[in-house]
UniProtKB/TrEMBL annotation:
Organism: Juglans regia (English walnut)
Domain DUF4283: 34-106
Signal peptide from the UniProt entry: none
Domain named Zinc knuckle CX2CX4HX4C: residues: 175-221
InterPro entries assigned to the protein according to its UniProt record, in alphabetical order: At4g02000-like, DUF4283, Zn_knuckle_CX2CX4HX4C
Record-linked Pfam families: DUF4283, zf-CCHC_4
Protein name: Zinc knuckle CX2CX4HX4C domain-containing protein
Superkingdom in the source lineage: Eukaryota
Length: 265
């Protein structure tokens, strides 16, 4: 949209005065860049307008940040969030996804961002659990292959040997929230097919008609077309198991190493 408007302006018959450029001093640009290191943009992906005051109060407590956090409106359900220091902002970004009233809060890192038109709310990281895998498939390689079917792989939760035997394999993915969630994939091991269900940790409200978290408009474009058809997406996509991390270890008596039950970072 921003590019279309820019092209439209270039085609307008503007006056000589309007053609004159206003130069932004380098010093002011540097100040803006420094400020951007403490800011992020947030979009509450909801089909109704949320209460700004409730959002600010709730998320300030949930994020447990030091000092005040300011929220300035960028549009409907869109906000510019400024922290006291970059460390707090980066911690909030690293612990995504977040939600408010069960609606996803899609975040965008504003560092070095030049203008509001450069802000996009299309992607968000999620931890995805891959269930019913054979033990032979509970490793980094299989996690990367299956994870790539749903999004961009950031991390596979395995131990130092690259394995992760257990009830499921965890993969951190960057998901396009405008596309349907992947419900699973088939794998073939020794000529035998296995269906591997995908379950998403901290999954917010999704559309049960199209499987997307975010629509182009306020309502699902395919909702009316699917009346009378059983939903292809549902609450079964939400993971309800305790988080498990193979990234950390502790020592018990006798030198035996065991897994810690830690929330993902």
């Amino acid at each position: 949209m921003a590019e279309e408007l820019s092209n439209l302006y270039e085609e307008l018959c503007i006056t000589e005065e309007e053609k004159q450029e206003v130069l932004i001093p380098t010093e002011e640009a540097l100040i803006s860049i420094e400020k951007s290191k403490k800011c992020l943009a947030a979009h509450v992906v909801a089909d109704k307008e949320v209460n700004r005051g409730a959002l600010r109060t709730t998320m300030s407590k949930v994020w447990k940040v030091e000092g005040q956090v300011s929220f300035k409106e960028l549009g409907c359900n869109k906000f510019l969030v400024e922290f006291q220091n970059p460390l707090e902002k980066n911690r909030v970004l690293s612990e995504r996804p977040w939600s408010f009233d069960r609606y996803l809060i899609c975040l965008f890192n504003c560092e070095d961002c030049l203008a509001p038109r450069d802000i996009f709310f299309n992607e968000e990281p999620f931890w995805v659990q891959l269930h019913d895998l054979p033990f032979a498939g509970m490793n980094r390689t299989m996690g990367e292959r299956l994870g790539a079917a749903a999004g961009n792989v950031v991390l596979v939760d395995v131990d130092s040997s690259g394995m992760a035997w257990g009830s499921f394999l965890r993969v951190k993915l960057i998901l396009d929230i405008s596309k349907p969630l992947t419900s699973g994939r088939f794998i073939n091991l020794g000529g035998k097919r296995y269906w591997i269900p995908f379950k998403y940790e901290r999954l917010p409200l999704i559309c049960f008609h199209c499987g997307a978290i975010k629509h182009a408009g306020l309502s699902c474009p395919s909702g009316n077309q699917r009346e009378g058809v059983a939903p292809q997406y549902g609450s079964w996509l939400r993971a309800n198991s305790q988080h498990r991390s193979f990234q950390h270890f502790s020592k018990k008596r006798g030198g035996i190493r065991t897994l810690k039950q830690l929330a993902p970072k």
